[in-house]
């Protein structure tokens, strides 16, 4: 027990010395917290940040305008917890305006981009449930990252999109670990025909291009949020299985395994209690790399239109919607989600590299 504690302590000390690994780790933690509390942090707290205003589409970062915010009549039907973590399903209606004036119970306004006074619209505020003066309905709204082609707040879409990336990464890695550790451990421990069957399955899966296999599984399961998780996870278990198989084969003849057999322990207990805890270091490292790979695969699927479906905010889908804007002088619409993908993937890779160095007992 003392030896395990000291090895863990040494690994932690080595990890702390890797400045890029530490910074990347805290960046990943920050992104995770932002993803969990995305709706509390995003300016647009509507479900999927899907509050559209087409009159202000494709505006540059820092764009500011006056808006009329009309409260929804069904706001009390959703709990605070549901609004905070799943978005407001009855969000306020946003109307960007050029100018406005009030006359009695009427609020007259000119929509954003309109110049002719003859195009004025009116709202009968006596039919609206709100507190205070009529002018309380008019606020100034700033879009810090601009708006997309549908007039949605890009910052809010980016913040909520973090959830998709982390969800895909976490669930896909979990599926790959369950399958990979199970098949790899029985293949390496028992050998013989079991090993031959598992290796045949690994080689067949390995021979198919990952993206092509994911597309095939996604089309078989159907388009959707959870289907992407399963499809990505079912293609990533091969690497885990190969690593676990090799590690099990290298330690199954060790003295502590021989001693466990001599004591009459069952094979299942030897594998789960004695072998797997001693070979988890490389599995942890490969899981970090798989997490990054899962984010990239999901982004690619969403870009192709078979990943997370609209209006769910996915960084890959955001690039797909706006890549044509690069030649229209509004490249930021595609670059911003691209930078989000790049930074998160790089952070996971740097954490994986730092873990590999820290868990390497030979150094």
TrEMBL record:
Residues forming coiled coils: none
ABC transmembrane type-1 domain sequence ranges: 162-352
UniProt-listed Pfam families: BPD_transp_1
GO biological process: transmembrane transport
Alphabetized UniProt keyword annotations: Cell membrane, Membrane, Transmembrane, Transmembrane helix, Transport
Subcellular localization: Cell membrane
Topology in membrane: Multi-pass membrane protein
Main subcellular location of this protein, as a coarse class: membrane
PANTHER family in the cross-refs: D,D-DIPEPTIDE TRANSPORT SYSTEM PERMEASE PROTEIN DDPC-RELATED, OLIGOPEPTIDE TRANSPORT SYSTEM PERMEASE PROTEIN APPC
Family: Belongs to the binding-protein-dependent transport system permease family.
Name of this protein: Dipeptide/nickel ABC-type transport system permease DppC
Organism annotation: Psychroflexus torquis (strain ATCC 700755 / CIP 106069 / ACAM 623)
């Amino acid at each position: 027990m003392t030896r395990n504690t000291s090895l863990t302590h040494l690994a932690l000390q080595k990890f702390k010395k890797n400045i890029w690994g530490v910074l990347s780790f805290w960046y990943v933690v920050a992104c995770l917290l932002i993803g969990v509390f995305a709706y509390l942090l995003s300016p647009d707290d509507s479900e999927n940040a899907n509050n559209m205003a087409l009159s202000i589409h494709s505006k540059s970062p820092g764009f500011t305008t006056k808006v009329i915010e009309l409260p929804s009549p069904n706001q009390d039907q959703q709990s605070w917890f549901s609004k905070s973590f799943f978005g407001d399903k009855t969000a306020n209606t946003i109307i960007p305006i050029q100018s406005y004036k009030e006359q009695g119970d009427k609020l007259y306004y000119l929509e954003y981009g309109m110049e002719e006074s003859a195009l004025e619209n009116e709202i009968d505020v006596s039919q609206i449930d709100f507190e205070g003066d009529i002018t309380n309905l008019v606020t100034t709204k700033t879009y810090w990252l601009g708006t997309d082609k549908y007039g949605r707040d890009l910052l809010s879409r980016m913040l909520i999109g973090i959830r998709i990336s982390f969800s895909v990464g976490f669930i896909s890695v979990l599926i790959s670990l369950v399958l990979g550790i199970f098949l790899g451990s029985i293949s390496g421990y028992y050998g013989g025909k079991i090993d031959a069957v598992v290796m045949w399955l690994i080689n067949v899966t390995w021979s198919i291009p990952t993206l092509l296999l994911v597309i095939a599984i996604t089309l078989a399961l159907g388009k959707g949020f959870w289907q992407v998780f399963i499809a990505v996870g079912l293609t990533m278990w091969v690497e885990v299985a190969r690593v676990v198989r090799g590690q099990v084969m290298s330690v199954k003849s060790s003295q502590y395994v021989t001693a466990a057999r001599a004591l009459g322990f069952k094979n299942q207990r030897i594998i789960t209690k004695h072998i797997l805890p001693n070979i988890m270091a490389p599995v942890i490292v490969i899981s970090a790399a798989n997490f990054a790979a899962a984010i990239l695969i999901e982004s690619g699927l969403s870009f192709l239109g078979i990943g997370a479906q609209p209006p769910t905010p996915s960084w890959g889908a955001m690039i797909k919607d706006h890549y044509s804007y690069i030649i229209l002088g509004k490249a930021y619409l595609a670059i911003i989600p691209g930078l989000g993908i790049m930074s998160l993937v790089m952070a996971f890779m740097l954490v994986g590299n730092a873990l590999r160095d820290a868990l390497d007992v030979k150094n």
